Amino acid sequence: MDEISAALGDSARWRMVELLAERPRAVGELAELTGLRQPQATKHLQTLARSGLVTVFPLGQRRVYALETGPLQAFSARLRELLETAEAHAGERDVIARYRAAIDREAIAADRDRWADGREFAFERTFDAGRERVWRYWTDADLLGSWWAPKPLTIAECVLEPRPGGRVVLEYRDEEGRRYRSEGQVLAADEPGVLVFDLAVLDAAGAISFTGRYDLSLAAVSRGTRLRLGLTIAETTIGAAPFIAGIETGWGQVLDNLAELIGAHTDDEGAES
């Protein structure tokens, strides 16, 4: 497949394939129609032949080339697969586009420190699971590390100790190895229903970029557990704009991660019982 795509990547060879799709042609005719000298045309045809796209028929002193449709059909099928994959994941591209637009908006607004202090966010999800299970996904370090970062970020450390004064740590890395760290502490905890904690997002030098106060409540409902998460930000610096721009999208993604994991866990238990 790589050889075919490389062969078709040259405009002169692509034109030859177009001409040969109409009918077999001799080297001289192809050279004339593409504006190439015959030795150049021959080299291009040899490349197409090595990729399996054309076959040469020596007819006395003439060499006639014909197009082979098999490799093109395989190439077309692969392109269709790529297109279907891209269309199936179009939402992920849209997330990046929205994040980029949000960064631009926040960068304009970030004209001074504390520019976004007091801004509030709210998130809600309902899980088909009991409060105790959802609580464990917040307070067990291994479970917390399985969902508390948007893809494709990788969690390096995460801690949320469910007691007043307990540590809260989230550190993750991006695909290029850059480190992002947040630190804070728990202010209130009432298992399995309430968690209140502060978390400061640190910049590359370890200084606070902004802080967030998180108020998590888990309520029993007929369908399972309703999660409500409130966030109020403070101590915002000008450099916090990219982080604040990603709050809505990022928390939406990680709560989707949590919903997927809890749903899968519930299905597994149902299969075992």
Gist of the model:
By secondary structure, this protein is an alpha+beta fold. The protein has ten helices and ten strands. The chain has helices at 2-8, 11-22, 27-34, 38-50, 69-88, 90-109, 131-139, 141-144, 241-245, 247-272, and strands spanning 25-26, 54-59, 62-67, 120-127, 154-160, 167-173, 179-190, 194-202, 208-221, 224-234.
Beta-strand percent range: 25-35%
As residue ranges, the low-confidence spans are 266-273
What is the arithmetic mean of pLDDT? Answer: 93
| Strand ordering within the main sheet | 4-10-9-8-7-6-5
Helix/sheet category: alpha+beta
Number of helices: 10
| Secondary-structure element pattern, one letter each | HHEHHEEHHEHHEEEEEEHH
Shape type:
elongated
Rounded radius of gyration (Å): 29 Å
**How far do the termini sit from each other?**
48 Å
How is the main sheet built? Answer: 7 strands, antiparallel
The proportion of residues forming helix, as a percent range, comes to 40-55%
Please count the beta strands (DSSP E, at least 2 residues each). Answer: 10
What is the secondary structure topology, with strand pairs?
Layout: H1 2-8, H2 11-22, E1 25-26, H3 27-34, H4 38-50, E2 54-59, E3 62-67, H5 69-88, H6 90-109, E4 120-127, H7 131-139, H8 141-144, E5 154-160, E6 167-173, E7 179-190, E8 194-202, E9 208-221, E10 224-234, H9 241-245, H10 247-272
Antiparallel strand pairs: 1-3, 2-3, 4-10, 5-6, 6-7, 7-8, 8-9, 9-10
Helix pairs in contact: 3-4
